[in-house]
Write a structure and sequence with these properties.
heterotrimer; B: 175 residues; alpha+beta; SH3 type barrels; six-stranded mixed β-sheet; 6 strands; globular; disordered N terminus; C: 90 residues; mainly beta; five-stranded antiparallel β-sheet; 1 helix; 5 strands; 7% helix; U2 snRNA binding (chain A); RNA-binding (chain A); LSM complex subunit LSm2 (chain A)
């Protein structure tokens, strides 16, 4: 559950999601669930011309299993908290508390 | 029905210890907070809206989302399947498309790559620059493209493996 | 019956415990899709999901060309792409 909690702390921040098929989508993270499915608002496709049908898509629900990377601003991450949570996480199954 | 309280409660509760510590248990708050971060909550806003769904086999479905569940199983009404085809230069976007009416369309959640609400004022804008061809022709051409992709990727996997690298390709994933 | 064999610090170790010592250190992560990522390990879980900072991604090609390098200041990597994690120098 650590990264579920982690993504909850990123809600309302801008992130770039890279899928396993190489599409990169930039948007504001609006929601996340236990499977790390992501919901983005105000999306724009980094390779706009290649996927023209995404131009009229307002928000996007992305299935977690198709995600390769999520890039984010370093300012939105509390590294100390994340490291501590990872150290503890292996034992008590609890992550960062929101 | 899909967003009924019982279903939402089946989801493991989100870690909401924050509110537990400070305010003491307020059942309603706990319920609302744990519901916010569920699959259901992410999709519920798109119900009865025109929605775009990309499936793992590469299909693009456009239709009105009528219902769903916590696995992102979906039911679309008046669904249209649209095939986009690239031109000579495969690094560029599509140049033509074909579409077919699919009516009521149910999708099993595991096959969804992504889905999004469409802006109905702009959803057809991008089609202006594309040439429409009969769906059957598009389907035939797509089949060729897919079998070529599978062949290419298999060869690529082999070459990469000889360099100690592992490709990420399964032939059921053509999105 | 209740003899204590081990000290609390010497609990049985599992593979991921070794990764714990790499927190805040540079690691090299080998990934599916002919990729590698080098970066400072900021977090991980039992699925090998992880967050790296100051990361460099290397995308290898089939030929002899040099890998394409992409930089990212902070990146989450989904665990199902991960093949191995190894300590590395910067």
């Amino acid at each position: 559950m650590l990264f579920f909690s982690f993504f909850k702390t990123l809600v309302d921040q801008e992130v770039t999601v890279e899928l396993k098929n190489d599409i990169e989508i930039k948007g504001v993270l609006k929601s996340v669930d236990q499977y790390l499915n992501l919901k983005l608002d105000n999306i724009s496709c980094v390779n706009e011309g290649k996927y023209p049908h995404l131009q009229s898509v307002k928000n996007l629900f992305i299935r977690g299993s198709t995600v390769r990377y999520v890039h984010m601003s370093p300012n939105s991450v509390d590294c100390t908290l994340l490291q501590d949570a990872s150290r503890r996480g292996m034992y008590d199954g609890e992550g960062i508390k929101r | 029905m899909s967003n009924s309280p019982t279903q939402a409660q089946q989801q493991p509760a989100a870690p909401n210890s924050g509110s537990l510590d400070s305010n003491g248990p307020n059942v309603e708050d706990l319920y609302l907070e744990s519901y916010t971060f569920t699959t259901a909550a992410a999709i519920v806003g798109s119900v009865d809206r025109k929605t775009f769904v990309l499936l793992r086999d590469g299909r693009n479905i456009f239709g009105i989302l009528r219902t769903f569940d916590q696995f992102a199983n979906l039911v679309l009404q008046d669904a249209i399947e649209r095939i986009y085809l690239k031109g000579e230069d495969a690094s560029q976007g599509p140049v033509k498309f074909g579409e077919a009416y699919r009516g009521v369309f149910m999708v099993r959640g595991e096959n969804v790559v992504m889905m999004g609400e469409l802006d109905i004022d702009r959803e057809d804008d991008h089609l202006d620059q594309l040439e429409q061809i009969p769906f059957d022709d598009a389907e035939r051409e797509l089949k060729l493209v897919h079998s070529q992709t599978i062949q290419d990727e298999k060869a690529r996997s082999k070459r990469l493996l000889s360099k100690g690298l592992i490709n990420d390709f399964t032939k059921s994933d053509l999105y | 019956m209740s003899t204590v064999h081990t000290e609390p610090q010497q609990q049985q170790q599992e593979p991921l415990d070794l990764i714990r010592y790499q927190l805040d250190e540079f690691v090299l992560v080998k990934l599916r899709g002919a990729r590698e990522m080098k970066g400072k390990l900021q977090g991980y879980d039992s699925h090998c999901n992880m967050v790296l900072s100051d990361a460099q991604e290397f995308i290898f090609s089939e030929g002899e060309e040099q890998p394409v390098v992409k930089k990212s200041e902070m990146v989450f990597i989904r665990g199902d792409s991960v093949i191995l994690i190894s300590p590395t120098s910067e």
